[in-house]
Design the sequence.
């Protein structure tokens, strides 16, 4: 468990205590009550001694960071109350991460942040916390030639952005401490970018260049034929922009349904295309971290000099036209579905290829031979 997830666990425990106690709703919650929800009553109030332990420090470290973000409020006598921002974070944690990760950083700030996050954060099986790190620990990791002066300047800039806590010391020394915001930037930024990208595609749904699938399997010849047909359709369609096949969403509700078949991977799909298509379209298959779970993202990389991409070898169930492909067939996208290309569409693809090859040779394709 990393520190970002740990802070989320502490926030969830606060909400659990508040639901179970009217006193907690009005007055707030003590750190020990929060800890008891997470670790159990015996671990916190039993004879083993919880005060001053690693776990106790982790709870208070999380509360301090959540307080800095305005997600929890400290009331009298060390009671903590869940704030409105905390309630919003519990409802949609990725929305919070997206907001915190929007800031752009220079290379120097990013390098320092990565080092501080790595050295300051400590993870255990059931909790996490952050400690102070010194310039003597940080500078060797950076390899900067500017020395302590450069480090002080960049550290102060991270502190101003609340991505790390900077504490100058005597003799030109300093201490740095990771923050929730900085750790989100370092560990959740890519997830928020990819989640926004997928959400934008889902909002528009299927087009001539985007195809969504509930799931994709390649266990049977018919399943293989369907995948090859869909990839050829994206590769051949004459439309600008990038081409995507996204796996993991319901065709009617557009809701996320779950991760892709683990058998799918770049090599497996490339092997299928090599066996059943000519020329072979290039693809980039990745499983990305989406806010609700893993999503398969297959990009078809089209080369106009190679169109039309065709079926090289028949495959699938001949009794079901949608689950069968024949030698030399060409598929294209018609708005939101894949179809067999007609003679005119194939002729347009032939013309596109000839133009692309002529331009590659330095010949003006508009000039008569």
Sequence:
């Amino acid at each position: 468990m990393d520190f970002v997830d740990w802070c989320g666990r502490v926030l969830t425990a606060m909400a659990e205590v508040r639901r179970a106690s009217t006193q907690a709703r009005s007055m707030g919650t003590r750190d020990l009550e929060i800890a008891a929800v997470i670790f159990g009553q015996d671990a916190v109030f039993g004879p083993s001694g919880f005060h001053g332990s690693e776990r106790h420090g982790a709870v208070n470290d999380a509360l301090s960071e959540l307080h800095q973000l305005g997600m929890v409020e400290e009331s009298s006598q060390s009671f903590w109350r869940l704030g409105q921002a905390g309630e919003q974070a519990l409802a949609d944690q990725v929305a919070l991460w997206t907001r915190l990760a929007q800031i752009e950083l220079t290379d120097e700030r990013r390098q320092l942040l990565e080092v501080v996050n790595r050295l300051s954060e400590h993870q255990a099986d059931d909790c996490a916390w952050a400690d102070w790190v010194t310039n003597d620990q940080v500078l060797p990791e950076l390899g900067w030639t500017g020395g302590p002066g450069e480090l002080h300047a960049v550290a102060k800039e991270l502190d101003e952005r609340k991505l790390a806590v900077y504490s100058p010391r005597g003799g030109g020394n300093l201490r740095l401490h990771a923050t929730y915001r900085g750790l989100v930037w370092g560990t959740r930024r890519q997830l928020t970018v990819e989640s926004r990208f997928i959400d934008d595609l889902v909002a528009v749904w299927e087009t001539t260049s985007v195809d969504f699938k509930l799931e994709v399997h390649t266990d049977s010849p018919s399943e293989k034929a369907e995948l090859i047909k869909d990839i050829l359709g994206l590769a051949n369609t004459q439309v600008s922009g990038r081409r995507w096949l996204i796996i993991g969403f319901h065709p009617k509700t557009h809701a996320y349904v779950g991760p892709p078949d683990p058998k799918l991977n770049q090599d497996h799909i490339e092997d299928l295309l090599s066996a059943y298509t000519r020329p072979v379209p290039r693809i980039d298959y990745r499983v990305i971290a989406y806010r609700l779970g893993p999503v398969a993202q297959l990009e078809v990389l089209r080369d106009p000099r190679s169109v039309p991409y065709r079926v090289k070898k028949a495959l699938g169930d001949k009794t079901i036209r949608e689950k069968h492909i024949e030698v030399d067939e060409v598929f294209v996208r018609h708005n939101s579905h894949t179809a067999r290309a007609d003679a005119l569409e194939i002729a347009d693809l032939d013309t596109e290829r000839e133009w692309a090859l002529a331009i590659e040779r330095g010949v003006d394709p508009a000039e008569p031979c």
Remarks:
- The mean pLDDT is 92.
- DSSP finds 15 helices and 18 strands in the chain.
